[in-house]
């Protein structure tokens, strides 16, 4: 039974996405760029969540819809 749980946890560990602040930034040629927009109401310290059709601030609830291309 323990072996079965071990293999299951190994499978889920491989599927987990990278967590933390490093996921919000991209480093290219000694320059740092933000991957997500910041909230217009809260300021530069609050990133907005990325959804299919919109960006949403988890702190104040501000929503900005994405442009259709």
Provide an overview of this structure.
It is a single chain. The longest helix is centred in the first third of the chain and has 14 residues, at 2-15. It is built from one helix and six strands. The radius of gyration is 17 Å and the shape is extended. 20% of the residues lie in helices and 36% in strands. With 69 residues, it is α+β, with helices and mostly antiparallel strands. Strands 3-4-5-6 form a four-stranded antiparallel beta sheet, with no helix packed on it. A two-stranded antiparallel ribbon has the order 1-2.
- Helices and strands, in order, run as HEEEEEE
Q: How many distinct helices?
A: 1
Q: Looking at the structure, what is the overall shape? A: extended
Extract low-pLDDT stretches.
Answer: none
Distance between the termini: 51 Å
* Rg (CA only): 17 Å
Total strands = 6
Q: Whole-number average pLDDT?
A: 82
Helix-residue proportion: 10-25%
State the major sheet.
4 strands, antiparallel
Tell me the structural class: alpha+beta
Oligomer: single chain
Query: Order of strands side by side in the largest beta sheet?
Result: 3-4-5-6
Strand content bin: 35-45%
